[in-house]
């Protein structure tokens, strides 16, 4: 199969032809556009500049995700480094992309990191509230959510664009200052990476896929988990399954957590050591506050 290059990025011809024939300007974004960390299970993320429903398509055996974008300036972080597939005279994707300077991208990425750290503190507040209300399981869920926000936020504040499937690898490879690296370590302890066994992953994946029963990307998530299991990347797989569950649960309410507490507990693989969680929360809180004090001018973009 001929694999034409888009700049430095390799895209299967069928995917490129498909994206070029869509009725709007298009470009390749996501991990495939950066070209370095992708696994064979990773989809080709196509930014489509126009209205429409986001969806998955199978093109010549490749999975393509269409992500519709109507206001590119709201998506500076995702669009930086995009490889244009189809431009248009009316829209001029290329000139919009040229407008995303290194400086603007750094500022937007830094701001997104701070936002994630604030979300981490918010989830930690919910952890404390749940404990006051004698709902320790819900509390443990909030602490795990806080931990995922902390990892993503720390990466972004220090110049790396977080990519869910690759986030654990990114966190391990990132050249972080000692304080920030310690914070990430605490978050990974809260998440429970050391519990990444095949039975634990199987249990949490089944529950997580039940939570995602109405989502269009459910089968893609399942395929990614199967791929990581095949490659015996158990820690990455455990981290990813929990992260997808956390993202899904972030949009639910207390009534849902009460009604489906068992499902939540399974999906997030929650542990019950309350004293340990309390101790970890204190360290996590310090890490988030330290991250928020980071000065934008001292951080470098390394991805
Ligand atoms: Zn990927």
Automatic annotation (TrEMBL):
It comes from the Archaea. This is Uncharacterized protein. It comes from Nitrososphaera viennensis EN76.
């Amino acid at each position: 199969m001929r694999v034409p290059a888009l700049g430095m990025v390799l895209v299967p011809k069928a995917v490129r032809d498909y994206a070029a024939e869509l009725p709007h300007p298009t470009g390749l974004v996501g991990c495939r556009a950066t070209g370095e960390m992708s696994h064979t299970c990773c989809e080709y993320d196509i930014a489509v500049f126009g209205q429409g429903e986001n969806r998955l398509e199978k093109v010549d055996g490749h999975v393509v995700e269409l992500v519709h974008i109507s206001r590119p300036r709201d998506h500076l972080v995702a669009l930086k480094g995009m490889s244009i597939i189809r431009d248009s005279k009316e829209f001029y994707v290329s000139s919009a992309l040229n407008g995303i300077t290194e400086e603007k991208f750094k500022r937007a990425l830094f701001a997104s990191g701070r936002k994630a750290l604030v979300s981490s503190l918010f989830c930690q507040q919910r952890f404390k509230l749940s404990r006051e209300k004698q709902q320790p399981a819900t509390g443990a869920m909030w602490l795990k959510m806080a931990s995922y926000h902390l990892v993503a936020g720390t990466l972004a504040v220090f110049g790396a664009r977080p990519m869910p499937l690759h986030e654990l690898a990114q966190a391990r490879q990132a050249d972080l200052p000692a304080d920030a690296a310690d914070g990430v370590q605490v978050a990974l302890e809260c998440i429970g990476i050391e519990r990444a066994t095949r039975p634990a992953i199987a249990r949490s994946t089944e529950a997580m896929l039940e939570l995602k029963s109405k989502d269009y990307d459910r089968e893609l998530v399942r395929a990614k988990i199967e791929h990581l299991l095949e490659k015996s990347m158990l820690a990455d797989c455990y981290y990813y399954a929990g992260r997808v569950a956390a993202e899904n649960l972030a949009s639910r309410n207390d009534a849902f957590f009460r009604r489906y507490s068992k499902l939540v507990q399974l999906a997030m693989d929650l542990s019950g050591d309350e004293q340990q969680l309390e101790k970890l929360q204190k360290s996590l809180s310090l890490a988030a506050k330290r991250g928020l004090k980071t000065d934008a001018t001292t951080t470098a973009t390394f991805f």
